[in-house]
Amino acid sequence: MKSIRVISGIVALLLMSLSSQVSAVAGDGLVRDVRLWTAPDHSRLVFDLNQKIEYKVFPLHNPERIVIDMERTQLKANLNSLQLPDPVVQSIRHGKPTSGTLRVVMDVKERVQPRTFLLKPMQGKPYRLVVDLSRPEQAKQAAMRSGESRAKKGLVIAIDAGHGGEDPGAIGPRKLYEKTVTLAVAKELAKIVDATPGMNAVLIRNGDYFVPLKKRVYLARKAKADMMISIHADAVRQRNVEGSSVYTLSERGATQDRAARALAAKENAADEVGGVEFDTVDDPMVTQILGDMFRRDSLNSSQILAESIIGKLKHAGPVKYSAPKRARFFVLGAMEIPSVLVELDYISNPAREKKLKSRDHQKKLASALFNASVSFFQKMGRLKSTPDQAMLPADSATALQYAVSEQGL
Ligand SMILES: [Zn+2]
Predict the structure, then answer these.
(1) How many percent of the chain have pLDDT more than 70?
(2) pLDDT (tens digit, 9 = 90+) per residue, 39-71?
């Protein structure tokens, strides 16, 4: 094998010297695109590659830099297109330390630990080299903000905007990304929740970056959420399909519903598209065995929450299934927290895509999710009911009338 590589290397060199005008020699690695995603606790640089390459990543100090050496690779992307500086990366440049080697140097603002991995082609994405720069200090602070140190006031709703960063989710005919819609609706919902006395929102994702599924579950647990809503938008080939659907966790995954099973498989693939190298999240709860009764109780609560959401979504737009469905969604893994996954609509339907893009409709959807949450908490005896429950306004300013009961806090 080694000799073959050496020979092919020599051939490549010969070819290169023979035709210096040729921009790329067959067999060479090419960086075709580059993207930078900024998350609260790390920045992620992604290189699109035409093939698998050999690479090395290492830090240099005084000043702090991260060096990425890609063997037999050429740059065909524009590094100047990156939005810089970001909280970690000050600037980025490239050079050729030796013939054939592409060196990318990032000037970083503080000492950071790089973590790199190569992603195989999948769902239309090519080979990708991922370089994660996590910030120990900021990471700690971010964790503290969303975690235990945050005094728990009232009921906490974990709002999970599906996909993000490298993972666009479903893409509409007019190129609207699922990740954009989910974040917009999540933020609208958080606004209403946070303006409601006795309620707090925790946004699992707060920008355009990817959060691994396991980490989403972990963040909801860390925030001691009383409920979790994972927001998505579906897509199918037939463009006329429309309507929302709501899902809860199927414990064993042995769901009879093929469509639900296919959907879960699609949503569960997010980690591979978004880019997860290995388990970077340590969640002791995952290994904890939950008692049967406890689990059943929580699954029942999720069912009630799901029904409540369908009831309210009916007023915001078409509903695909009038009853919740079940499948094994990884993101619903916190079995002690009532959790649902909502597919807001079909982004593959041009008319619905247009709706999903509209700010007014996003607000309408967020209000429906909020009203459903309130009615769920009331049913569970955790919020006091008022006589005009159905009149709960979309704008939460008047939701002040809803006093949080002492019970369950
Ligand atoms: Zn999705």
Answers:
(1) 77
(2) 988 899 999 999 999 999 999 999 999 999 999
d(CA 258, CA 270): 19
CA of 163 to the centre of ligand 1 (A): 6
152 to each of 55, 110, 250, how far by Cα in Å? Answer: 46, 32, 29
Ranking 124-128, 152-156, 356-360, 402-406 by mean pLDDT, the lowest is: 402-406
Q: Which residues of 76-93 are buried (b: 16+ CB within 10 A; e: fewer)?
A: ebebeebeeebbbbbebe
Tokens of 87: 């909280």
CA–centroid distance, residue 279 to ligand 1 (Å): 21
The overall pTM is greater than 0.85: no
Question: CATH code for 25-134?
Answer: 2.60.40.3500
Which tokens hold the place of 289?
Answer: 């065995």
Taking the centre of ligand 1 as the mean of its atom positions, its distance from the CA of residue 310, in whole angstroms, is: 18
CATH of 151-401 given 1.10.101.10, 3.40.630.30, 3.40.50.2300, 3.40.630.40: 3.40.630.40
Report the separation in Å between the CA atom of 216 and the middle of ligand 1, taken as the mean of its atom positions.
14
Long-range contacts of 252-256 (CB under 8 A, 24+ apart): 252/328, 253/327, 253/328, 255/325, 255/326, 255/327, 255/328
Q: Is 78 helix (H, G, I), strand (E, B) or coil?
A: coil
